[in-house]
Design goal:
333 residues
Length: 333
Amino acid sequence: MAVYYRPLMQTGPARPAGTLPIAGGWGWAAHAERLERGRAPEVVPISAIPDSLRAALSAPRADLAGLALDTPRLMGILNVTPDSFSDGGLYLAPEAAIAHARAMAAAGADILDIGGESTRPGAAEVEAAEEIRRTEPVIRAVAGIGPPISIDTRKASVAEAALSAGAAIVNDVAALTFDEALAPLVARAGAPVCLMHAQGTPEKMQAAPHYENVLLDVYDFLQSRVAAAEAAGIARDRIFIDPGIGFGKTLAHNLALLQGLSLLHGLGCPILLGASRKRFIGTISGAETAPARMPGSITIALAAVAQGVQILRVHDIEPSQQALALWRAATGM
């Protein structure tokens, strides 16, 4: 039976001797939660963790497209789509998309994530040619404005066009399972790739999601996909991971993942969290429209940073930047 260890993250300058730094970042741990299927969690000293896992937990993460990950980074969302849940149609026109990309860069976005296919619950697949038509001109226009560009796609042809236009990162919600040509392309290009967990495709993923243990199931899936990416020739130091909040998860599943995020540091990869404006925030807070969920989105983002999450995928760059600055100041980070 597999045993898992989730570091119980702490931050701040008052750090006792013998604690374990987490991912070379701002957090550390003196204790961990020992997890095993079918058994109650147990809190143990950090020294109880096997040496090989301690090394994976503590090793500094490699730079991502030139960005050091010893401080939280903001990935700005740009949906060049007519039907995304948060801003459908606002940035479908290239001129609007380019202007918004420039505004996010000016507001402090560290990465710009550009996608031409909505993956909201119930969304239908978009043909690759249409996805390229939507994204390639925008990427080509903004690739030199500062932040590295990420292409949000499941398809090799879309990623290839984006990388040729100036994108530097591939963000795949299917973790290289949708298009068998994508992993070899990423390996050849030497691009960083984000592997996200999803249960099912966007069309049906919210029909009846089920897990034995959502935190451990997501960990095991991502561990297997990291191994598959490495087998395809993608170096581990170019892989980052995303638990896929809202992708085949109920409210309870989302909350269990958010509460246990620090477990994922054991995979030895940077962690991205994309929870911005999602439905569960409205369910809890009563905010019915996506833009009204901004305060809740920032709260979730800060809770994730407290667990050592390095990359926050967000819609609202300026308020998120302000919140991070105040969090760092208040915690002495």
